[in-house]
Amino acid sequence: MNPSTSHVTNHLICSTMSENKKRSHDACESGSQASSGIPPRKIQRLDSTPYPATPEEHVQMDNEVMADPVLVACGRLQLPCSQFAPHLITIIVGTSEDLNQKYHHPGEARSLLDTEGGLLGELQEAWNTKAFAPIRNLEILQPPRVSTGGTSSKPVLYLSLSETANQAAWKTPYAGAAHTSFIKTIDALYSKPNSRVYYNHVALIQSSGCGKSRMLHEASHHIHTVIMNFGSREAFPNPDTQVREYLVNARTEEQCENRVASFLASLFRALSKLDFQSPSELAEYLGYGDAEKLSQQEAFFDAVISEASEIEQGIQTRTPPSPGETSPSYQSDGVERALAKATKTLIDKIPPQGHLNVKLLLGFDEASDLADPRKDWDVLEKTRRVFRHLLWWPIFGVSLSTAGSVKQFRPVSMRGKSSRMQDGRIYPRPPITLVDYDQLAMKLAEGKTLDDATTMEYTLSLGRPLDETRYDAIWGFQYYNECEYKHNEDIVHFAIRKLLDGDDDTFHSSISIAPLAIRLPLEFNALTEDGREAERRQVESRMRICLKIEPFADIMYTVAPSEPVLIEAAAKNMKTERALTDRPVRVLHRFLSNRFLSKGDPAGLACMLLLLLARDMACRNLDTSRTPMRYHILVPVTAFLTNLFADGHKAIVLDAQAYEDGPSLKEAFKDSWTHCTHFVKVTDHKVVNRKFLMRLMARGAGVLCADSQLEIDAIIPVCYKGKELVTENITVIAIRCRNAVPLHKPRDAIFTSMDPNHAGIFDKDHPGDIPIIKLVLSIATNTPVLTCPPWKRSAKTRSQSKDVPLSQQHFRFFAAGMSHEVFRPIQEEDEGIWRELLSCSDVADIYSRGAHESASDIMRRMTPGAHSDPRHWDVFFPLDFTAENMSVDVASDIDDESAD
């Protein structure tokens, strides 16, 4: 136990014991009461509804309880349970999310012990056996039960911490203008009516936590909207289970389409009977996401389904095929007339909203639960067909989802039953992906420090709004200052679950690549189906951001989110037991070899992975006992470099000099700090400037330079003197990766070409009076080498000035070879994998994938002159072909023909 942890533990033990002096007296009193014949109140167990956990999960939670530092110390001191019972309750509840988190606060735990006389005995027995499942099964520790009301057959629900946090977060004020942009996009799509458009229905596709549902709810206050949630019972906002079951339980294709049409006709009739004048009034009545109006919402949809069933039962005949259709429409005459009449009545009732063309928006949240790609038809496909009949009405449908396949929402034309869709005469609306990002971000200004940029409040404000709203919601009604560490840790664990929970596919391994896809600027291979599938899985299940989906191709443009909490989750996963066996370099090599990723030059990926692994090692050696953010912390430059290179080179690194007789790196950068938890690829070379690099460093980002910047491949920003975030205090670690041409020793020309002024790092008008660090990594070299060659000044330069200006002090490191003898993060048994990783380029390795050597020879002849291998030249201009051996070759050819 480190000193700081010991201090905190001792403080908690002392405060716990002092708080329980009174409790010892009370215990005696309760004991005297028992002896006088007054029995303690019996503790009721959850016999009918036990705590929802498997035996293995109970064991895992028990281990977390026993790992608490205070409880460990209490066990060593052999204290009776009565001395630390309130703290034990807070830890049991804190490690069990589905318990009533009210008792995570020590004051509430003490009150519970005061009112429940038999609880102390239960705790003592559980403490003796080190098994706390009986405590979790106590009725008194369960969250308050909330009846869903209504007439549907939903079971009684428990409000867990997650559900309570979601409800509170939903009520926080909406930030940003994404809903305005969303409404404009929908209205623009409708304002261009086109007979070639199949339906006025569009999919909104984005990864989890980006605020899709909340954005749609906010839009409902500006445009008349009905939102339905088709998710599972655990979904939030509360799912409309009765609607989902009515639609998905259709047995035949005909019945499914009739049910969709009947439901919409009934819904429109019900809306026509409501008294509303504005979108807000309708939104308030339907109460989407409002737990207090859950019963009213359920009653509304129960009535809609009841009338829809009556409409469905009135079906008699089927309409013949429409002109141009090869298959009949499965809507009956009665359903089609009912839908048309109900639509007209509702549209006439809805008052116009300014300049908007769309009068009604229908939102289908968690719409992937309506899709079944295994069948030729499903509810989602039939919903689109029904929307075809609403094409010329000012009604628009939107499907929201992250789970399931993206292809479900942009079906290929052959899946549509319309011949016009199959031959391209009509087409579906392309998906949209734009939601707001960083809308809750706290704004920093020059003059702040890196400490300000690594606070929990600032960290959570970056990226998608999910973590920030949960943090504020839980903190507002559950937690207090004394529980801050545990609260922050809960947020990190929540991010880990969002990133890594769920089933995995052994082939695409979406879980194994997820941490790397968050921290590295990986690009997936859109040219292969496996690459596209791997990328879809990262968006659907692993929090990757989707920028765009091509309208008529199954291609997505995605990026890794620069999101500190997710990056912390990814970094922690890279040190789990699974990651120790399936190490990051092996995962990256596997995905490159299987062509899931666009390879380009793998040297850059290898170098960035090395840098991140080195930084993670440095973080683990620092004292982070006071924060759950183990990796989103500041790292001294010297600690980063000494963890990058092998232990035997520590003295070489720290004693390196920029010039002969100059100060050592340890002295020059003694108060310098880095904050690089991940890399982002920039597309504009102007971003490689100190004013931009400083801002990227505030969110923990290093830079992979644009393709046009040939001198420098990657940059890690550095605060040179202290932690102040001002442009003049920013310097860099500039990295150049050499893979094409191996170098065995450093060359001055390479270091000279890495000119920070020419690269634009320093402004020409304000050149930096500050030293920099240059790393040249010749990783394709077989011989391991690490040198730190100082700049050798000429005699004339030395005579002019003893000291070298700071702007000319460039600390130069030359490292060659992917070896554990050079780089500390490389393990000896993985050296072969690191070297193979460098050969995974898009073109160079294609020749080695032939079924046999002759196939490889043919592939090389198909690309004449593309490589230095003689087989690319032998056919038309052999490298060793001369006039002297021409006659020999010709004679040989004649003999071969004669033999034939």
Task: Briefly note the structural class of the backbone.
Answer: alpha/beta
Task: Determine the fraction of residues in helical runs and give it as a percent range.
Answer: 40-55%
Rg (CA only): 33 Å
Described by the principal axes of the CA atoms, the overall outline is globular
Sequence stretches where pLDDT stays below 50 over 5 or more residues: 1-48, 146-160, 316-331, 411-416, 476-485, 896-900
**What would you call the quaternary organization?**
single chain
Task: Determine the N-to-C terminus distance.
Answer: 84 Å
**Average pLDDT across residues?**
79
Give the tally of β-strands.
Answer: 17
The fraction of residues assigned to DSSP E strands is 5-15%
The largest sheet, given as strand count, sense and whether it forms a barrel, is: 9 strands, mixed
Summarize the structure in words.
With about 900 residues, this protein is of the alpha/beta class. It is about 45% helix and about 10% strand. The strands form four sheets. Strands 9, 10, 11, 12, 13, 14, 15, 16 and 17 form a nine-stranded mixed β-sheet that branches. A hairpin with a 6-residue loop joins strand 7 (about 545-550) and strand 8. It is globular, with a radius of gyration of 33 Å. The termini are far apart. Mean pLDDT is about 80; it is low at about 1-50, about 145-160, about 315-330, about 410-415, about 475-485 and about 895-900.
